[in-house]
Amino acid sequence: AWTVHTEHLIDDTPHVRIEQADIELPDGTQFTQHVFRIRRCAMIAVLDETLTSILMLRRHRFITGQWVWEIPGGYADDAESGAEAAAREALEETGWTPRNVRYLLTYQPMIGNADAPQDLYIATGADLAGEPAADETESVRWIPIDEATGMIANGQIAGAATIIAIQHAPLQRAAPEPPPH
Known about the structure:
181 residues; alpha+beta; 4-stranded mixed beta sheet; 3 helices
C-alpha cells in the first residue's frame, strides 16, 4: 500500500480543494502528488421518448480552447439531491425540463489525481419550459445518437460524461431500468 507522509493545503474554494501530498510506494520510491478534491457534480442524459436522440448544448470550454457539445450538468448544491441538481442544470442550460429522471452511475473522471465524483442520471422525455440561461450555452439541439457517436470521433464531443451517456443510450432500448441508487 502507498503511504501518505504529509498533505499540505494549497487552495480551498467552494468547488475544489487542492492539496500536495508526499507519497511513498512499498518499494521505497517517494514523490509528490497534487490532489484535487472536487465537489460532486450531477450530469443528465436526456433522451427523447423514442430513445434515439439526446438533448445537448454547445459551449466554449476555454481550458481546452474548444467548442464542444455536452449533456447538461454541474455542481450539486448541498440542499438538493443529485436528481434534483441534474434536472435543475438541464433546465438552466437547455430550457428543457426532463421527465422520468433516474440514477444511472457514478464515475471518477480523473482518478489518478482527483477525487471528483460525477453522478450520471438519465431521463426519458422532456418538456420545453423556456430559454436557456444566457450565460450557459451557444445553442441547444436534440442530436440523433448515431450522429453523436460520429461527433465523438471528430472531436466535437470531448467530455467524459457526454461520451459515457452517448455510449450508454443504445442500452436503454434493450434494458430501460438502471440499477437503483
